[in-house]
Amino acid sequence: MAACTSVVAQPTAVHGLDVAGIDRAIAPGDDFFGYANGLWLESATIPADRSSWGPAGELTELTAQRTAQLIRQAAASPAGSEARKVSDYYASFMDEAAIEKLGLKPLEPGLKQIDGISDRAALARAFGKTLRADVDVLNATSLHTANLFGLWVAQDLDDPSRYSPFLLQGGLGMPDRDYYLDPSPSMEQVRSSYRAHIAALLALARLSEPQARAARIFALEQRIARAHSTREQSEQVVAGNNHWRRAEFTQRAPGLDWTAFFDAAGLAAQQEFVVWQPGAVTAMSALVAAEPLERWKDYLRFRLIDATSDYLPHAFAAERFEFHEHVLSGTPAIAVRWKRAVEETNAALGETVGKLYVARYFPPAEKVRAEAMVRNLVAAFAQRLDRLEWMAPATREKAKAKLAALKVGVGYPDKWRDYSGLEVIAGDAFGNAERAKLFEYRRNLAKLGHPVDRGEWVMNPQLVNAVNLPAMNALNFPAAILQPPYFEPGREPVMDYGAIGATMGHEISHSFDDQGALFDASGRLKNWWTPQDLAHFRAAGSRLADQFDHYQPYPGVHVHGKQTLSENIADVAGLSVAYDGWRLTLGGKPAAGAGGFSGEQLFFLSFAQSWRQKIREPALRQRIVADGHAPDEYRADTVRNLDAWYGAFGVRPGQKLYLAPAERVRVW
Ligand SMILES: [Zn+2]
Q1: Residue % of the chain over a pLDDT of 90
Q2: CA dihedral 570, 571, 573, 575 (to 10 degrees)
Q3: If you placed Cys at 28, which of 35, 201, 232, 613 could pair as Cys (CB 3.0 to 4.6 Å)?
Q4: Cα(567) to centroid of ligand 1, in Å?
Q5: Angle at the Cα of 559 (from 168 to 177), degrees rounded to 5?
Q6: Do residues 614 and 542 touch, judged by C-beta distance below 8 A?
Q7: What is the pTM of this model?
């Protein structure tokens, strides 16, 4: 999509604000997202290989092109070097002819192992062998794995000095239990596509009776779905923090042969675990014992094929795309191979690619500038704490200590990951992918028993995103998000503060959202609030949840205020902090306007344009069911909680976004 990136390279107007995209026929007070982006929404088209489009998508495209070029250039690096591994990994994936020629061969060893499962202990070992470090409760908030369980190795929530292994529910091929259980016609349709997808993959792998097997596999997954906790329940930190001794598993969750499972997972010596959804683990363990062995073996066969389809001949990748991207997200066309190769290489050797990326595309001056901006925002947050009338001095002091301890990472980690233990074999795309996942899993297991490293990053530098690590009280701002249109050298600070400033404020605020606020400065899950302050904070959160419950993108489909509460708190607080941070840069002078807009208007427009997005219906529906973030349109409309927005655009009572001062949510 080379043409699309020109939008990024050539901002159309004032300080990078897309004036031509504003729809002046819409009143800002009725629909601020529509006002800021209406004409852009009319003219923009979502590229065929994407489920949504906006500045983040544009930057992702640009970054992928740059990254692909760097990876190809790395082919000239000496054999065995890290850079060469990157290029070998990429080139092996790109060699479609070789992959077609191998056909089903790469699947054979895995399928043979499954054939050989003759009892429940062997079944448990098979599950243990597939355990991977593929979930994350608090940082990336990725709660889904198609493996029976997922592992997350992270700072223990009771004892921040050590790591613990967190065990999460998994086992579903679709994104959430709702996809299996929601009786609505649209979900029923997805289910029938999924059954067809299972059968199609089994047929491609030349397994007999694909339809009958697919029906049984689907029925089994539906039973797993019934055992699952909901997304909202899984986001409850206190409810998830259950320490189980290794010896307790058999008694608390009988069924699965836990000794065989942990042994095969490389966790035989581990004495304590955090079981995030104990009810689900108990029910799923019982299911492992209750369901016929043959049914589980079919289930494992399908899991193996579905998970590795991208590394098999085109027919497999196309079938996987058809369900997972087309049906579930509405994306019409599979991405060209080089884009997928970049993604796969990023997943396998992310920080090596990141090292190449920042050396070429992240100037040291931009790192310095971004760090200064974060410092200014932290100072603005501290000032807000001082001004909070409702907060008792004791709570305020704890909050300030936590803010002071925040560890901010900008651009890339101080210390790069070591991939020397990962073997990349030129020409073995399938094997490389398997080894990379296993390498990542073992890297995580190796943390157990060692001191917690707060400098570790959970995002690649070449990712257009940012993250707060609540238990580690740390932030990652990857290099790839620190570029236009979010962050642009030489333009008026107001635009940067409205865009990347609000994102930085958002990530800082996550340390103080309804989940982050449960952790003290050291990352211990510990209440540091006076009862009155906590009650006030919770009341504000519940009003914000109500506000978001009212947004309805489709008739009968509404945003889940509780499921998205942490993100929505971080948005309101982050935007408030960005606004204050911008005012601090003015040093008391009035804000200069431009292009017919006041400084205040530029700030809010920059914010709303940074959230502009066109999204396909299935992708939006999936987001509502399975994501902790509200749709971007409503995130932009959170301006309605800030007093300054009302003055900037003359918003009056009776307009759709108008909130009386007492209804505006001020969390921080
Ligand atoms: Zn967030």
Answers
A1: 93
A2: 150
A3: 35
A4: 5
A5: 35
A6: no
A7: 0.93
